[in-house]
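INFO  loader      accepted 1 record
INFO  loader      residues=42
INFO  predictor   begin
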Amino acid sequence: HQIPVVFYSQLMAVAFGMDGKKDAALDQNTIKSAKLEALAKS
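INFO  predictor   done
INFO  writer      dumping C-alpha cells
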C-alpha cells in the first residue's frame, strides 16, 4: 500500500487555485506502508 504524504505548502497551492497534480505535485508524495510499520515497531 502507498500512504500519501502532504506538505502544508502543497495544500496552500491548491487552496490558492493551483493545479493539484501539475503545480503542487500531490500525486508524487507517497511512502510505502511497510516502512511506516517498521518504524512503529522499533
